[in-house]
Design a protein that fits this description.
about 260 residues; alpha+beta; six-stranded antiparallel beta sheet; four-stranded antiparallel beta sheet; about 25% strand; globular
Length: about 260
């Protein structure tokens, strides 16, 4: 059972289902912010190599282009609500707290259940102002939450590598670059990614580039200019990878609808 609700600034989705598989959503990332809240169930999110456990009543705020996997800690009934939105939607007063985070933020927000009711009503014009207000309250809750984060030596190495990729995402990044930046061997870098990220460095970089490219195209930039911006000298290579990743061409007029966990 799925209900969707959209305002000018937020895209909400409420899902009620039965979990019969451990993996709810495999490795992926989005060009926008994502708020995911659990109404019933128990899940685990591995985000950029760090693990976060969510139980009923808890929500997580995932930054743009943050690579993550969602798995279930137990089978059975599962209900959740998500909201997708652009960074510019965040009130200016909250941006120093939310836009500078390099990790996800966990919080509890009673407004989540009100959002669920709104999604089920299917009256976007009437409820849009209330939905926007509730979501801003949720963002305030997240902004006031501080994560206690203990970092191991391996986490520190991974953080530096991921920061390097983020900074140079629009360039050509090789395994040699990652090894040189982290002062580790190429095999060590690959092992670290497989252990922490459950994916190879190459696939991680590719998915981040494609998500970023999709956001630029959605904002109105031409596919050819976007290809150059994300580091492709050959448009044919960009076209092929984009179509393989999303199932549509970069020039498609169809709006990309991310399947959120």
């Amino acid at each position: 059972m799925t209900y969707a609700f959209k305002t000018e600034t937020f895209e909400f989705e409420y899902i009620k289902s039965t979990i019969d598989s451990t993996v709810l959503w495999e490795n992926h990332c989005h060009a926008r912010f994502e708020m995911l809240a659990v109404l019933e169930g128990n899940i685990n999110i591995v985000l950029e190599g760090r693990s976060y456990r969510l139980t009923e009543g808890e929500s997580i705020l995932i930054p743009p282009l943050a690579y993550h996997t969602v798995t279930a800690n137990r089978k059975g009934a599962y209900r959740r609500i998500t909201a997708m939105f652009d960074p510019e939607t965040i009130p200016k007063v909250l941006r120093p707290r939310l836009l500078n985070k390099d990790t996800a933020i966990l919080s509890t927000s009673p407004q989540i259940r009100d959002l669920k009711k709104i999604c089920k009503e299917k009256q976007a014009d009437f409820y849009a102002p209330l939905a926007n207000s509730l979501m801003i309250q949720i963002l305030y809750n997240h902004a006031q939450t501080e994560l206690a984060d203990s970092e191991t030596e391996e986490d520190g190495f991974l953080t530096r590598i991921l920061a390097y990729i983020e900074t140079h995402l629009c360039e050509k990044i090789t395994l040699d670059d990652l090894a040189r930046h982290s002062s580790r061997s190429k095999s060590s870098v690959c092992h670290l990614f497989e252990e922490k990220m459950k994916v190879s460095p190459k696939q991680y970089i590719l998915q981040k580039k494609m998500a970023y490219a999709a956001g630029l195209i959605r904002d109105g930039q031409t596919p050819t200019s976007v290809a150059v911006q994300v580091g492709y000298d050959n448009y044919s290579d960009f076209y092929r990878m984009y179509q393989k990743h999303f199932g549509i061409s970069p020039a498609s007029k169809n709006e990309l609808q991310a399947k959120n966990p």
